[in-house]
């Protein structure tokens, strides 16, 4: 999957294709990769279409493998 570099402000996300499925990225970068607003990202989470992991009460992340599955249309129907 190719990432549009103009949508990504975080240079580390440009290496998304090389990240392990077990790596985690933050919601803001997920929204950019999906091409949606952060509000839409959180709606996907609320609707249980995209799973997140809560590391602390203030730190939420998405597993790269789960995001790839979502992007491929394998989850979230």
What does this protein look like?
There is one protein chain. Helix 1 (27-34) packs across helix 2 (38-46). The chain has helices at residues 27-34, 38-46, 64-71; strands at residues 24-25, 53-56, 59-63. The model has no long low-confidence stretch (mean pLDDT 84). A three-stranded antiparallel β-sheet has the order 1-3-2. It has one domain (5-71): Multidrug-efflux Transporter Regulator, Chain: A, Domain 2. It contains three helices and three strands; from the N terminus they run E-H-H-E-E-H. It has 77 residues and is of the alpha+beta class. It is globular.
Summed up, what is this model?
The chain has 3 helices and 3 strands, in the order βααββα.
Provide keyphrases for this structure:
3-stranded antiparallel beta sheet; alpha+beta; single chain; 77 residues; Multidrug-efflux Transporter Regulator, Chain: A, Domain 2; 3 strands; 3 helices
List the helices and strands and how they pair.
Blueprint lengths: L23 E2 L1 H8 L3 H9 L6 E4 L2 E5 H8 L6
Antiparallel strand pairs: 1-3, 2-3
Helix pairs in contact: 1-2
Intertermini distance: 20 Å
Radius of gyration (CA) equals 12 Å
How many beta strands in the DSSP annotation?
A: 3
* Domain module tally: 1
Estimate percent helicity.
25-40%
Give the biggest beta sheet. 3 strands, antiparallel
| Largest sheet: spatial strand order | 1-3-2
Provide the succession of SSEs.
EHHEEH
Based on secondary structure, the structural category is alpha+beta
CATH topology: Multidrug-efflux Transporter Regulator, Chain: A, Domain 2
| Strand-residue proportion | 5-15%
């Amino acid at each position: 999957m190719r990432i549009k570099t103009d949508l990504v402000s975080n240079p580390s996300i440009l290496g998304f294709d090389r990240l392990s499925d077990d790596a985690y990225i933050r919601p803001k970068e997920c929204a950019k990769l999906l091409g949606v607003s952060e509000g839409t990202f959180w709606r996907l989470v609320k609707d249980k279409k995209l799973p997140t992991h809560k590391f602390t009460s203030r730190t939420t992340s998405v597993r790269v493998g789960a995001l790839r599955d979502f992007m491929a249309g394998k989850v979230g129907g």
